[in-house]
Design brief:
With 188 residues, this protein is mostly helical. It is built from two helices and no strands. The protein has one domain. Keywords: Membrane, Transmembrane, Transmembrane helix.
């Protein structure tokens, strides 16, 4: 029993360690892949927005300058300003969405990591409890064996003493009987 406990505990600990390392590695790989995918999507989106925005802003600046100098086309100026504001709002919304996605992914990764850590800690605690139980069982068995051995030794000692007393008693009785016989023979 003393050999079965550690022999079973070592492979279990090794398996748990291997699973924990694999889980952490998978989480890291997924996190890197997600961040890379977000970057791959965000960079073209930002580049496209910039490519669309720059000419519009430049045209808006030219139109606003011409309208300011000539004091004409107020409607065009208003339209251009609305377009610029709309583009800026769209850029802000897209940026906020990307930031929320990244924060959400980070929170999910943190939660998954915490869950994995709690699982590993729970498994370690379970292994510790099992080890303690096995140690208590082994100690109990050892104590029982020692008690049995001591009991057997005491019984052997008691039996030996009883036999010795019986032998001594028999010897004394035989001696007394022989003494009486010798006295009878001597008188006769």
């Amino acid at each position: 029993m003393a050999m079965i406990g550690p022999a079973m505990a070592v492979p279990v600990v090794g398996t748990i360690a291997a699973v924990a390392v694999a889980v952490v590695g998978t989480i890291a790989a997924v996190a890197v892949a997600v961040v890379a995918a977000i970057a791959a999507v965000a960079v073209p989106v930002v580049a496209a927005i910039a490519a669309v925005t720059m000419p519009v802003v430049a045209a808006a600046e030219v139109s606003l300058a011409l309208a300011t100098r000539a004091r004409t086309f107020p409607g065009l100026v208003i339209v251009v300003m609305i377009m610029v504001i709309t583009i800026v709002i769209v850029i802000m919304v897209i940026t906020i969405v990307i930031v929320i996605m990244v924060i959400t992914i980070v929170i999910v990764m943190v939660v998954i990591t915490i869950v994995v850590m709690v699982m590993v800690i729970t498994i370690v605690i379970v292994i510790m409890v099992i080890t303690i139980v096995v140690v208590i069982m082994v100690i109990t068995i050892v104590v029982m064996v020692m008690v049995m051995v001591i009991t057997i030794v005491v019984m052997v000692m008691v039996i030996t003493i009883v036999i010795m007393v019986m032998v001594i008693t028999i010897v004394i009785m035989v001696g007394l009987a022989l003494g009486q016989h010798v006295k009878v023979v001597a008188r006769s």
